[in-house]
Design goal:
Elements lengths: L4 E5 L3 H10 L5 E5 L2 H10 L4 E4 L10 H11 L4 E6 L4 H10 L3 E4 L4 H27 L9 H16 L3 E5 L6 H12 L4 E5 L5 H9 E2 L11 E2 L1 H4 L4 E5 L6 H13 L1 E2 L8 E2 L3 E6 L3 H7 L4 H7 L3 E3 L10 H12 L6 E2 L1 H9 L5 H15 L3 E2 L1 H7 L5 E4 L2 E4 H15 L4 H7 L4 H10 L5 H9 L4
Parallel strand pairs: 1-2, 1-3, 3-4, 4-5, 6-13, 6-14, 7-10, 10-13, 15-16
Antiparallel strand pairs: 8-9, 11-12, 17-18
Length: 452
């Protein structure tokens, strides 16, 4: 397997000689001592990662200017800045320009290796997601061992051409996605979904089994039910735990006999179908209460796929976040910091993957291109505290302080404060409002504690 390619640009020749040794197990490293040599190399070669200093002896270009020059010819390359730059304003400019990671000089070999590995992991994740989006196929997103077990089980069921499958899991875990994945992998042409809790008991027979003309008032023509329409494909019974007992006995008969009787006729018709049922309810508990038939349960649970809640596969969250960004917001140039991803992994996710998708949408809509830990805390306030040196530190308090200092430095000119923070005016005002730094009259009071 070809190693990733890394370009190191730094005027410290001794340091340039050390980088290939530090990363010998991770990447192939090419080092150059000047920005211009780096630009020349980038014009003819592709690198996965660039390690860049921002200060070059004898070079009058600013760090942001150097960074801009490199990014102009490094399309698709991640940049790790390792620099002794301490000017806060210049660092903010570079961060907002799209640096992948920043390490201060000097940094330990462990920190450098970890930063490079995180960047390479992110690139690999993005490549998988791009392939997935481009293929336009239904798939299960994630690389955790937990989701791999689910994939392996599905592959075996598809190969065995299992006729009846039960998918169980909490609300929002992706039961419908798994169902569509099974259908796609099976190559079935027909897919007939029925939401068992969304149709009235009076119309359920017609939806499932069909009816003949005149079977009841309004039946002006024959209707084909889901099992008949499947034609060898799949019938998906979503939330089967919501099905009334009166329907359960009829469903059991269809599953056993593979025949249906349309409403309004006594004629039996043979049907070819495969069935997938899904539920977020405890069917065993329902059997004990007498609200779900035990014989139907045994019939539908010959093959059971149990979907894990998101809290049990949190290592998949970065990949899921990337997937939702590319799927729903591909028109935006959007980055999420490692710290923000770590914050998202701390959440319990009671709404599972569906909740994560909603949170990503909210983060993107509020972002100016980069989402940080403080942005996550604004959307999920329960994550506003993080451990810092053994103590809990309020992320929102820190973000509010950052805004206050920018406002003070700008002499309460909010446009200039927004510029100092690297934000657009609209984003600045939205975040300032969230942080309690709102009206013009209150700016001075909010930041200094003084009235008048």
């Amino acid at each position: 397997m070809t190693k990733p390619q890394v370009l190191a640009i730094d005027d410290d020749v001794t340091w340039l000689g050390q980088i290939p040794l530090i990363l010998e197990d991770h990447a192939t490293v090419v080092g150059v001592p000047t920005v211009d040599e780096g630009v020349a190399l980038l014009n003819g070669h592709f690198f996965d990662v660039i390690i860049l200093d921002l200060n070059f002896e004898g070079d009058e270009r600013s760090g942001s200017h150097i960074f801009s020059q490199i990014t102009s010819v490094a399309n698709g390359t991640n940049i790790l800045v390792i620099s002794g730059e301490t000017n806060h304003r210049r660092l903010i400019e570079v961060f907002n320009a799209g640096v992948s990671k920043f390490l201060p000089k000097p940094s330990s070999t462990h920190e450098i290796r970890r930063a490079i590995q995180e960047i390479l992991d992110e690139r690999s994740r993005r490549s998988r997601i791009k392939s997935l989006i481009d293929s336009d196929e239904i798939s299960l997103v994630g690389s955790s061992r937990t989701i791999e077990v689910v994939r392996d089980q599905i592959d075996k069921l598809v190969e065995a051409k299992a006729k009846d499958i039960l998918v169980v899991g909490e609300s929002g875990t992706g039961k419908e996605v798994v169902t569509k994945y099974i259908v796609t992998q099976s190559g079935a042409k027909n897919y007939c979904p029925i939401h068992c809790g969304a149709i009235s008991e009076g119309l359920a027979d017609s939806e499932l089994f069909g009816h003949v003309k005149g079977a009841y008032t309004g039946a002006v023509s024959d209707r084909v039910g889901a099992f008949e329409a499947a034609l060898g494909g799949f019938v998906f019974l979503d939330e089967i735990g919501e099905m009334p007992l009166s329907q359960q006995v009829k469903l059991l008969r269809v599953l056993q006999e593979r025949t249906v009787r349309r409403v309004g006729t006594s004629a039996e018709k043979s049907v070819q179908f495969r069935m997938i049922a899904a539920t977020n309810r405890n069917l065993n508990a329902m059997i004990a209460k007498g609200t779900f038939r035990e014989d139907l349960f045994y019939r539908i649970s010959k093959e059971v796929i149990t979907l894990p809640p998101l809290r049990e596969r949190k290592e998949d969250i970065p990949e899921l976040v990337e997937y939702f960004i590319k799927l729903h917001h591909s028109h935006k140039n959007f980055e999420i910091t490692q710290e923000a991803l770590v914050q998202l992994q701390k959440h319990a996710w009671p709404g599972n993957v569906r909740e994560l998708s909603s949170v990503v949408d909210r983060l993107v809509s509020r972002s100016e291109g980069v989402v940080r830990a403080a942005d996550v805390a604004l959307v999920l306030p329960e994550l506003s505290y993080k451990q810092v040196g053994g103590r809990k530190r309020n992320v929102l308090v820190a973000e509010r302080e950052r805004f206050k200092q920018a406002l003070l430095a700008a002499n309460f000119d909010r446009d200039k404060a927004a510029e100092k923070l690297g934000l657009s005016r609209a984003t600045y005002f939205r975040r300032a409002k969230d942080l309690g730094l709102v009206s013009k009259r209150r700016d001075r009071e909010a930041t200094t504690g003084l009235k008048g």
